[in-house]
Amino acid sequence: MGRRGSKKSGEGQYAPFPYALLKSDAWRSLSGAAVKVFLELHTRFNGSNNGVLRLSYAEAAEALHMGKATVQRAFQDLQDKGLVVLEREGNWYHRQAHEWRITTKGVHRVRGKEPPSHDWRNYRLGKTDGGSDLKQDGGSVVPFENRKGASRSEPEPVRPVPKGRHGSGSEH
Predict the structure, then answer these.
(1) How large is the average pLDDT for residues 27-42?
(2) Which end of the chain is less packed: N or C, by CB atoms within 10 Å?
């Protein structure tokens, strides 16, 4: 009684993600902020509005408790990795948000439904992605410097304390 179809009451919509996506270089190299923005954008998909998914940077920042610059970088990350496409730029003066297309979903057009483009499948992890921006050759970070010509097995020489000063701070 009271149930429609086989769906449990109160479950609502859900977002299935294929393992091919979740195990891809594109998905695994996303920032945490980009994953959150993608999921927020996905909640606006109703089955037939892909390509006109509206989400502004300000709206995403407020909903996800992030700064606008972080949201902007997250959207760029999603675009660079082929998960979303900016279909139409928003207009701040006319209070219109950007319109996005998720590449994992098809698009309803006038001529019929287009299949998903899956642009994320073309993304390949480069050597500079997936880690810090520091050079991996060790040239950027030097934790300490050795004296010129000193080897690791040599003990550090004891330096004399200048006259009138004692290392412990107490007078003799």
Answers:
(1) 97
(2) N
* Residue 151 domain-assigned (yes or no): no
Which residues constitute the domain of residue 91?
19-120
Answer whether residue 83 shows pLDDT above 70. Answer: yes
Read off the pTM. 0.67
The residue written with tokens 């660079």 in the block is: 80
How is residue 82 annotated by DSSP?
T
Q: Residue 139: inside a domain, yes or no?
A: no
Distance between CA atoms of residues 164 and 21, nearest Å = 71
**CA–CA gap between residue 57 and residue 88 (Å, rounded):** 14
pLDDT level of residue 5 (50, 70, 90 thresholds): very low
How many structural domains does the chain have? 1
